[in-house]
Specification:
By secondary structure, this protein is mostly beta strands. It has a single domain, classed as Beta Barrel (Porin), CATH 2.40.160. It has helices at residues 3-13, 15-19, 38-42, 263-268; strands spanning 71-78, 84-94, 98-115, 121-141, 144-157, 160-175, 180-194, 206-214, 220-226, 243-250, 255-262, 280-288, 291-299, 305-314. A 14-stranded antiparallel β-barrel has the order 1-2-3-4-5-6-7-8-9-10-11-12-13-14. The two termini are 37 Å apart.
């Protein structure tokens, strides 16, 4: 292991205490935690260390400068019941200024029947939805990629609404000799502009660390991410129990297979002594005519499963 690899590892490790005092509470904007991109979801939400994918705007804007060409991606998520979600993102380099990206994320909860205070139906219906508008910038200094993204978040249900603004930031360092990537970042650092019925709520702030390694003798890229490192815990090492792992297999020039595991999801979806396949995910990526079609299956155990589709291209 090289000296610079050890140095960066120590630097990323000691970022933790600096941010650990920011507590995390239940938020009205938890949809911001959901990985909309099918590739990210199939890998268990281990996208912090991903390179050359325009969807990194939503996970680590510090990797925007790894884009090799102008890129666009659109995706759809079939959630449980009538809940649907999706995203659209575009990014490219502008001369020597850097890399810029813009994207939108939405989540539609469907229609609900209105009732009065006694539970009787009024015959009226109402809706609920979440929306996030994202603008990102990234650049590179040597082998260190860095970037930030600002987002405007809006949620509404019936006649009530809430708006917030937030900041994402991240770094990514690529060790070409070892084919190792180290990354760190935070998401959703911000505040509400307006709240639901005057009730202030926090944003789902999330401090993350990640590492990825491309194996030397196998067509496999392994990824490990730690989430919610800012949240309080009984012991220091308990902070690392919210982890996810993923593996991407290069089966050919046009086909990739993916598998992932998200420990926190499995823990939270466990019912009694059974969790079935909760927390496990899988999928594939297929390159056809300059377009990449990605699919992801995410198990929620006894509750059901989610299906995601994404379509990406480079110009």
């Amino acid at each position: 292991m090289s000296l610079r690899f050890r140095t960066i590892t120590v630097c990323l490790f000691f970022m933790l205490p600096a941010m650990s005092t920011i507590a995390q509470e239940q938020s009205a904007y938890d949809f911001l935690r959901i990985p909309m991109n099918a590739r990210a979801a199939a890998l268990g939400n281990t996208f912090l260390t991903m390179r050359n994918d325009v969807s990194v705007l939503f996970s680590n804007p510090g990797a925007l400068s790894t884009l090799e060409a102008p890129s666009a991606s659109v995706g759809f998520l079939k959630h449980l019941m009538d809940v649907n979600a999706g995203y659209l993102v575009y990014g490219q380099q502008y001369d020597d200024i850097g890399w810029f990206s813009a994207g939108i994320v939405y989540l539609d909860y469907g229609s609900f029947e209105e009732t009065d205070i006694f539970g009787d139906r009024t015959g009226q219906q109402f809706g609920a939805a979440d929306l996030s508008l994202n603008l990102g910038y990234g650049n590179v200094l040597g082998s260190l990629h860095y970037g930030v993204a600002v987002k405007l978040v809006h949620s509404y249900i019936e006649d009530y609404s809430s708006t917030a603004t937030a900041l994402d930031a991240g770094i990514s360092y690529y060790f070409s000799d070892e084919e190792i990537i180290l990354a760190a970042g935070f998401q959703n650092l911000g505040t509400q502009i307006s709240s639901f019925a005057g009730i202030d709520e926090s944003l789902p702030f999330d401090l993350r660390l990640g590492v990825a390694k491309k194996l030397e003798h196998l067509p496999l890229n392994l990824m490990l991410n730690f989430h919610k490192l800012n949240e309080t815990s009984d012991g220091f090492f308990d902070r690392f129990t919210n982890y996810s792992v993923g593996g991407e297999f290069d089966l050919s020039d046009v086909l990739k297979a993916r598998i992932g595991y998200y420990n926190e999801m499995r823990r939270e979806l466990k019912i009694g002594n059974s969790a079935k396949l909760a927390g496990f995910s899988g999928g594939f990526g297929l390159l056809v005519g300059g377009y990449t079609l990605d699919y992801a299956y995410n198990s929620l155990g006894e509750i059901g499963a989610m299906h995601r589709f994404s379509l990406s291209t480079m110009f």
